[in-house]
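User: Okay, second chain of the day. Same drill as before: sequence in, C-alpha coordinates out.
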Amino acid sequence: MPSHFFHLIAFAISAAVVLLVTPLVRYWGLRSGRVDLPGGRKVHDQPMVRLGGISIFLGTLVALLIIWAAGGFIDASGTHLSSADEYAIWGVTLGGLAFFLIGLMDDFFGLSASSRLLMQAIVAGLAWQVGVSIDFLTIPFVGLVSLPVWISLPVTVIWLVGMTNAINWIDGLDGLAAGVSGIAATIMLVVSLFMNQPAAALIAAALAGGALGFLRYNFNPAKIFMGDGGSYFMGFTLAGVGVIGLVKSVTTVAVLLPYLILAVPIIDMSAVILERLRSGESPFTADKRHLHHRLLNAGLSHRWAVLFIYALTLWAGSLALAFAGIPSGVAYALGATVLLTYTSWRVRRLARHLSR
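Assistant: Same drill. C-alpha coordinates below.
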Protein backbone atom coordinates (compact mmCIF):
# COMPACT_ATOMS: atom_id res chain seq x y z
CA MET A 1 0.00 0.00 0.00
CA PRO A 2 1.46 3.46 -0.91
CA SER A 3 2.81 5.27 2.12
CA HIS A 4 0.93 8.46 1.16
CA PHE A 5 -2.32 6.59 1.83
CA PHE A 6 -1.35 6.34 5.50
CA HIS A 7 -0.93 10.11 5.66
CA LEU A 8 -4.47 10.68 4.40
CA ILE A 9 -5.79 8.10 6.86
CA ALA A 10 -3.89 9.76 9.73
CA PHE A 11 -5.40 13.14 8.81
CA ALA A 12 -8.92 11.70 8.64
CA ILE A 13 -8.65 9.70 11.88
CA SER A 14 -7.31 12.67 13.83
CA ALA A 15 -10.02 15.00 12.52
CA ALA A 16 -12.75 12.43 13.26
CA VAL A 17 -11.55 11.86 16.83
CA VAL A 18 -11.44 15.61 17.49
CA LEU A 19 -14.91 16.14 16.04
CA LEU A 20 -16.29 13.38 18.28
CA VAL A 21 -14.38 14.09 21.49
CA THR A 22 -14.52 17.90 21.63
CA PRO A 23 -18.23 18.10 22.59
CA LEU A 24 -17.59 15.60 25.38
CA VAL A 25 -14.65 17.63 26.66
CA ARG A 26 -16.76 20.79 26.54
CA TYR A 27 -19.59 19.10 28.45
CA TRP A 28 -17.19 17.85 31.13
CA GLY A 29 -15.51 21.26 31.38
CA LEU A 30 -18.82 23.03 31.91
CA ARG A 31 -19.95 20.50 34.50
CA SER A 32 -16.66 20.70 36.42
CA GLY A 33 -16.32 24.49 36.18
CA ARG A 34 -13.05 24.38 34.19
CA VAL A 35 -13.75 27.63 32.39
CA ASP A 36 -11.86 30.76 31.35
CA LEU A 37 -13.57 33.87 32.68
CA PRO A 38 -13.78 37.09 30.62
CA GLY A 39 -11.97 40.28 31.57
CA GLY A 40 -8.52 41.86 31.38
CA ARG A 41 -6.70 41.07 28.10
CA LYS A 42 -9.32 38.52 27.07
CA VAL A 43 -11.67 39.32 24.22
CA HIS A 44 -14.45 36.80 24.98
CA ASP A 45 -17.50 37.99 26.93
CA GLN A 46 -18.68 34.75 28.55
CA PRO A 47 -17.09 31.84 30.45
CA MET A 48 -15.42 29.39 28.05
CA VAL A 49 -14.11 25.86 28.59
CA ARG A 50 -10.37 25.92 27.84
CA LEU A 51 -9.58 22.23 27.70
CA GLY A 52 -10.00 21.64 23.96
CA GLY A 53 -6.34 20.71 23.74
CA ILE A 54 -7.33 17.34 25.19
CA SER A 55 -9.24 16.46 22.02
CA ILE A 56 -6.46 17.74 19.70
CA PHE A 57 -3.88 15.68 21.58
CA LEU A 58 -6.06 12.56 21.59
CA GLY A 59 -6.85 12.90 17.90
CA THR A 60 -3.19 13.17 16.95
CA LEU A 61 -2.07 10.37 19.25
CA VAL A 62 -4.84 7.95 18.26
CA ALA A 63 -4.11 8.52 14.56
CA LEU A 64 -0.38 7.81 15.01
CA LEU A 65 -0.98 4.74 17.16
CA ILE A 66 -3.45 3.25 14.68
CA ILE A 67 -1.07 3.78 11.76
CA TRP A 68 1.83 2.36 13.77
CA ALA A 69 -0.21 -0.69 14.81
CA ALA A 70 -1.46 -1.23 11.25
CA GLY A 71 1.91 -1.31 9.56
CA GLY A 72 4.47 0.73 11.40
CA PHE A 73 6.29 3.79 10.12
CA ILE A 74 7.54 3.31 6.56
CA ASP A 75 9.39 5.37 3.99
CA ALA A 76 8.32 6.22 0.44
CA SER A 77 9.54 2.86 -0.87
CA GLY A 78 7.44 0.95 1.66
CA THR A 79 10.32 -0.24 3.87
CA HIS A 80 10.39 0.26 7.61
CA LEU A 81 12.35 3.17 9.02
CA SER A 82 15.61 2.78 10.87
CA SER A 83 15.68 2.68 14.65
CA ALA A 84 17.20 6.17 14.76
CA ASP A 85 14.34 7.59 12.69
CA GLU A 86 11.72 5.85 14.83
CA TYR A 87 13.38 7.21 17.97
CA ALA A 88 13.07 10.71 16.53
CA ILE A 89 9.38 10.18 15.75
CA TRP A 90 8.64 8.96 19.25
CA GLY A 91 10.78 11.80 20.57
CA VAL A 92 8.41 14.28 18.94
CA THR A 93 5.32 12.31 19.99
CA LEU A 94 6.34 11.77 23.62
CA GLY A 95 7.77 15.29 23.80
CA GLY A 96 4.40 16.56 22.60
CA LEU A 97 2.75 14.52 25.36
CA ALA A 98 5.03 16.06 27.98
CA PHE A 99 4.41 19.59 26.70
CA PHE A 100 0.68 18.87 26.64
CA LEU A 101 0.82 17.81 30.29
CA ILE A 102 2.77 20.94 31.23
CA GLY A 103 0.13 23.07 29.55
CA LEU A 104 -2.66 21.08 31.18
CA MET A 105 -1.11 21.67 34.63
CA ASP A 106 -0.98 25.36 33.79
CA ASP A 107 -4.66 25.27 32.77
CA PHE A 108 -5.61 23.56 36.02
CA PHE A 109 -3.28 25.13 38.57
CA GLY A 110 -1.66 28.20 37.00
CA LEU A 111 2.14 27.70 36.86
CA SER A 112 4.68 30.51 37.10
CA ALA A 113 6.55 31.54 33.95
CA SER A 114 9.86 30.31 35.38
CA SER A 115 8.53 26.86 36.30
CA ARG A 116 6.93 26.46 32.86
CA LEU A 117 10.14 27.41 31.09
CA LEU A 118 12.22 25.09 33.27
CA MET A 119 10.00 22.09 32.59
CA GLN A 120 9.83 22.92 28.88
CA ALA A 121 13.62 23.18 28.66
CA ILE A 122 14.08 19.82 30.38
CA VAL A 123 11.66 18.07 28.02
CA ALA A 124 13.26 19.76 24.99
CA GLY A 125 16.66 18.57 26.18
CA LEU A 126 15.38 15.00 26.43
CA ALA A 127 13.91 15.26 22.93
CA TRP A 128 17.32 16.41 21.67
CA GLN A 129 18.88 13.36 23.33
CA VAL A 130 16.71 10.95 21.31
CA GLY A 131 17.36 12.62 17.98
CA VAL A 132 15.10 15.66 17.71
CA SER A 133 18.16 17.83 17.25
CA ILE A 134 19.23 20.75 15.08
CA ASP A 135 22.62 19.70 13.79
CA PHE A 136 23.00 22.29 11.02
CA LEU A 137 22.48 26.01 10.60
CA THR A 138 22.61 28.22 7.54
CA ILE A 139 25.01 31.15 8.07
CA PRO A 140 24.77 34.12 5.65
CA PHE A 141 27.68 34.21 3.17
CA VAL A 142 28.95 30.92 4.65
CA GLY A 143 26.26 28.36 3.88
CA LEU A 144 25.40 25.19 5.75
CA VAL A 145 27.40 24.74 8.97
CA SER A 146 27.52 21.60 11.08
CA LEU A 147 26.98 22.32 14.78
CA PRO A 148 29.02 20.75 17.59
CA VAL A 149 27.07 19.16 20.41
CA TRP A 150 27.56 22.07 22.82
CA ILE A 151 25.87 24.40 20.33
CA SER A 152 23.31 21.94 18.95
CA LEU A 153 21.72 21.38 22.37
CA PRO A 154 20.95 25.02 23.29
CA VAL A 155 19.92 25.88 19.72
CA THR A 156 17.49 22.93 19.69
CA VAL A 157 16.08 23.78 23.12
CA ILE A 158 15.58 27.43 22.15
CA TRP A 159 13.81 26.41 18.94
CA LEU A 160 11.50 23.85 20.57
CA VAL A 161 10.65 25.97 23.61
CA GLY A 162 10.46 29.21 21.63
CA MET A 163 8.12 27.80 18.98
CA THR A 164 5.91 26.27 21.67
CA ASN A 165 5.44 29.63 23.32
CA ALA A 166 5.04 31.44 19.99
CA ILE A 167 1.96 29.35 19.22
CA ASN A 168 0.72 29.83 22.78
CA TRP A 169 1.07 33.61 22.47
CA ILE A 170 -1.00 33.89 19.30
CA ASP A 171 -3.82 31.91 20.92
CA GLY A 172 -5.70 35.12 21.65
CA LEU A 173 -8.64 35.05 19.23
CA ASP A 174 -11.20 32.40 18.35
CA GLY A 175 -9.70 29.96 15.86
CA LEU A 176 -6.39 31.80 15.48
CA ALA A 177 -3.87 29.32 16.91
CA ALA A 178 -5.77 26.28 15.57
CA GLY A 179 -6.00 27.76 12.08
CA VAL A 180 -2.41 28.95 11.92
CA SER A 181 -1.18 25.58 13.24
CA GLY A 182 -3.41 23.67 10.83
CA ILE A 183 -2.13 25.67 7.85
CA ALA A 184 1.50 25.29 8.97
CA ALA A 185 1.09 21.54 9.60
CA THR A 186 -0.51 21.02 6.18
CA ILE A 187 2.36 22.82 4.45
CA MET A 188 4.89 20.81 6.48
CA LEU A 189 3.06 17.66 5.39
CA VAL A 190 3.46 18.57 1.71
CA VAL A 191 7.07 19.71 2.04
CA SER A 192 8.12 16.70 4.14
CA LEU A 193 6.66 14.31 1.58
CA PHE A 194 8.47 16.14 -1.20
CA MET A 195 11.71 15.95 0.81
CA ASN A 196 11.19 12.19 1.18
CA GLN A 197 10.53 12.41 4.92
CA PRO A 198 7.26 10.42 5.19
CA ALA A 199 7.53 9.77 8.92
CA ALA A 200 7.66 13.48 9.78
CA ALA A 201 4.87 14.02 7.26
CA LEU A 202 2.76 11.46 9.13
CA ILE A 203 2.98 13.47 12.35
CA ALA A 204 2.19 16.65 10.40
CA ALA A 205 -0.85 14.96 8.81
CA ALA A 206 -2.23 13.87 12.17
CA LEU A 207 -1.64 17.31 13.70
CA ALA A 208 -3.21 19.07 10.70
CA GLY A 209 -6.30 16.88 10.95
CA GLY A 210 -6.66 17.55 14.66
CA ALA A 211 -6.12 21.31 14.37
CA LEU A 212 -8.47 21.80 11.44
CA GLY A 213 -11.10 19.50 12.98
CA PHE A 214 -10.99 21.60 16.14
CA LEU A 215 -11.93 24.70 14.13
CA ARG A 216 -15.44 23.25 13.87
CA TYR A 217 -15.88 24.29 17.50
CA ASN A 218 -13.19 26.95 17.91
CA PHE A 219 -13.76 29.35 15.00
CA ASN A 220 -15.56 32.56 15.87
CA PRO A 221 -17.89 32.44 17.72
CA ALA A 222 -15.97 29.75 19.61
CA LYS A 223 -17.68 27.16 21.77
CA ILE A 224 -14.45 25.99 23.41
CA PHE A 225 -10.79 27.07 23.75
CA MET A 226 -7.78 24.80 23.37
CA GLY A 227 -6.03 26.17 26.47
CA ASP A 228 -2.31 26.01 27.16
CA GLY A 229 -2.36 22.22 26.87
CA GLY A 230 -3.44 22.44 23.25
CA SER A 231 -1.21 25.34 22.22
CA TYR A 232 1.88 23.82 23.90
CA PHE A 233 1.24 20.48 22.22
CA MET A 234 0.77 21.98 18.77
CA GLY A 235 3.71 24.36 19.11
CA PHE A 236 6.15 21.66 20.18
CA THR A 237 4.90 19.20 17.57
CA LEU A 238 5.23 21.74 14.76
CA ALA A 239 8.75 22.59 15.91
CA GLY A 240 9.66 18.91 16.22
CA VAL A 241 8.34 18.04 12.77
CA GLY A 242 10.35 20.94 11.37
CA VAL A 243 13.49 19.44 12.89
CA ILE A 244 13.12 15.77 11.95
CA GLY A 245 11.42 16.37 8.61
CA LEU A 246 13.17 19.37 7.12
CA VAL A 247 16.31 20.34 9.02
CA LYS A 248 17.48 16.71 8.88
CA SER A 249 17.39 16.91 5.08
CA VAL A 250 20.81 18.59 5.28
CA THR A 251 20.37 21.12 2.49
CA THR A 252 20.65 24.88 2.79
CA VAL A 253 17.08 25.44 1.62
CA ALA A 254 15.55 22.67 3.76
CA VAL A 255 17.15 24.05 6.93
CA LEU A 256 15.42 27.39 6.33
CA LEU A 257 11.96 26.03 5.52
CA PRO A 258 10.60 25.54 9.10
CA TYR A 259 11.42 29.15 9.95
CA LEU A 260 9.62 30.32 6.81
CA ILE A 261 6.55 28.13 7.34
CA LEU A 262 6.26 29.35 10.94
CA ALA A 263 7.33 32.93 10.18
CA VAL A 264 4.12 34.58 11.41
CA PRO A 265 4.18 33.33 15.04
CA ILE A 266 7.99 33.67 15.13
CA ILE A 267 7.96 37.31 14.00
CA ASP A 268 5.00 38.16 16.24
CA MET A 269 6.74 36.73 19.32
CA SER A 270 10.09 38.33 18.46
CA ALA A 271 8.57 41.77 17.86
CA VAL A 272 6.61 41.65 21.13
CA ILE A 273 9.66 40.55 23.15
CA LEU A 274 11.84 43.30 21.66
CA GLU A 275 9.20 45.94 22.35
CA ARG A 276 8.80 44.79 25.95
CA LEU A 277 12.56 44.84 26.52
CA ARG A 278 12.81 48.28 24.91
CA SER A 279 10.15 49.46 27.36
CA GLY A 280 12.12 48.04 30.29
CA GLU A 281 9.55 45.31 30.94
CA SER A 282 9.87 41.58 31.40
CA PRO A 283 9.60 39.70 28.09
CA PHE A 284 6.98 37.49 29.76
CA THR A 285 4.68 40.35 30.79
CA ALA A 286 1.21 39.84 29.35
CA ASP A 287 -0.05 42.75 27.25
CA LYS A 288 -1.95 43.64 24.07
CA ARG A 289 0.99 44.17 21.72
CA HIS A 290 0.47 41.09 19.57
CA LEU A 291 -0.52 41.37 15.93
CA HIS A 292 -4.08 40.23 16.57
CA HIS A 293 -4.50 42.88 19.28
CA ARG A 294 -3.21 45.58 16.91
CA LEU A 295 -5.64 44.48 14.20
CA LEU A 296 -8.53 44.67 16.65
CA ASN A 297 -7.37 48.10 17.82
CA ALA A 298 -7.33 49.22 14.18
CA GLY A 299 -11.04 48.51 14.08
CA LEU A 300 -11.16 45.10 12.44
CA SER A 301 -13.75 42.57 13.43
CA HIS A 302 -12.70 39.41 15.22
CA ARG A 303 -13.17 37.29 12.11
CA TRP A 304 -11.37 39.64 9.73
CA ALA A 305 -8.36 39.85 12.05
CA VAL A 306 -8.15 36.04 12.13
CA LEU A 307 -8.66 35.67 8.37
CA PHE A 308 -5.93 38.22 7.66
CA ILE A 309 -3.44 36.28 9.80
CA TYR A 310 -4.53 33.05 8.08
CA ALA A 311 -3.76 34.66 4.71
CA LEU A 312 -0.39 35.85 6.00
CA THR A 313 0.47 32.35 7.26
CA LEU A 314 -0.62 30.77 3.99
CA TRP A 315 1.47 33.25 2.03
CA ALA A 316 4.61 32.52 4.07
CA GLY A 317 3.99 28.80 3.69
CA SER A 318 3.50 29.12 -0.06
CA LEU A 319 6.94 30.73 -0.28
CA ALA A 320 8.32 27.62 1.44
CA LEU A 321 6.64 25.47 -1.24
CA ALA A 322 8.31 27.55 -3.94
CA PHE A 323 11.76 27.51 -2.31
CA ALA A 324 11.50 23.75 -1.75
CA GLY A 325 11.23 23.29 -5.52
CA ILE A 326 7.82 21.64 -5.38
CA PRO A 327 6.18 21.48 -8.83
CA SER A 328 3.79 24.43 -9.22
CA GLY A 329 5.21 25.85 -5.98
CA VAL A 330 5.73 29.22 -7.65
CA ALA A 331 2.12 29.19 -8.85
CA TYR A 332 0.95 28.47 -5.29
CA ALA A 333 3.08 31.35 -4.02
CA LEU A 334 1.62 33.72 -6.62
CA GLY A 335 -1.89 32.60 -5.75
CA ALA A 336 -1.27 33.12 -2.05
CA THR A 337 0.20 36.56 -2.81
CA VAL A 338 -2.98 37.51 -4.68
CA LEU A 339 -5.08 36.25 -1.74
CA LEU A 340 -2.97 38.19 0.76
CA THR A 341 -3.14 41.33 -1.38
CA TYR A 342 -6.93 41.09 -1.58
CA THR A 343 -7.23 40.41 2.15
CA SER A 344 -4.92 43.35 2.95
CA TRP A 345 -7.03 45.61 0.71
CA ARG A 346 -10.21 44.55 2.50
CA VAL A 347 -8.54 45.04 5.87
CA ARG A 348 -7.38 48.57 4.98
CA ARG A 349 -10.79 49.41 3.55
CA LEU A 350 -12.56 48.21 6.68
CA ALA A 351 -10.11 50.08 8.93
CA ARG A 352 -10.61 53.35 7.00
CA HIS A 353 -14.39 52.92 7.10
CA LEU A 354 -14.43 52.29 10.83
CA SER A 355 -12.11 55.23 11.57
CA ARG A 356 -14.52 57.75 10.03
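The first strand starts at residue 35 and ends at 36.

User: Thanks, on to the next one.
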